[in-house]
Design brief:
This protein has 165 residues and is an all-alpha fold. Helix content is 93%, strand content 0%. GO terms for molecular function: proton transmembrane transporter activity.
């Protein structure tokens, strides 16, 4: 097989091939162009949808971050209020404890004074009873019948003198 250049365009079918090639390019250009255009539109639509989903996700993320910040503020307020309330309760308990101690101290002192007064009264009663017993014994030993008669007569005279007045 010998390969040589044929200068006769009609015999070589170069013109036919060129026309066929031009026709194919024209038809394929429209087909491939529309196919590529459809594919490009789909890709652009997918990109736009992805960007929109990204924007929505960013919006939701921002809202979630805002809610988190608000929740954190509320949590901090609750913690501060809890600490304040705990401090007030602790102080109230301490104050109530001090009042209870003061009341118990006062009550104890009053009980001690009362016990002291009772003991003093009992001692005074014992001393008085002992003194009366001693005087009574002394009078029994020293007072004779004659003295008793004089005392009785004197008391009767005083009574009759009081009646006459």
């Amino acid at each position: 097989m010998d390969i040589s250049f044929n200068a006769n365009f009609l015999e070589a079918n170069v013109l036919n091939i060129a026309l066929l090639l031009a026709g194919l390019i024209y038809v394929l250009k429209q087909f491939l162009g529309s196919s590529l255009s459809i594919r490009q539109d789909k890709v652009l639509l997918a990109i736009n949808e992805s960007e929109e989903r990204l924007n929505q996700a960013n919006t939701r993320l921002n809202e979630a971050e805002k809610q988190l910040a608000q929740t954190q503020i509320i949590i901090n307020q609750i913690i501060n209020e809890a600490n304040t309330t705990a401090e007030k309760v602790r102080q109230s308990i301490l104050d109530q404890g001090k009042l209870d101690i003061e009341r118990l101290t006062f009550s104890s002192k009053a009980s001690i004074r009362s016990a002291e007064n009772q003991v003093k009264q009992q001692i005074q009663q014992k001393i008085t009873l002992l003194a009366l017993n001693k005087v009574s014994l002394k009078l029994q030993n020293e007072v004779t019948l004659v003295m008793q008669a004089k005392i009785i007569d004197k008391n009767i005279m005083q009574l009759t003198g009081d009646i006459n007045i």
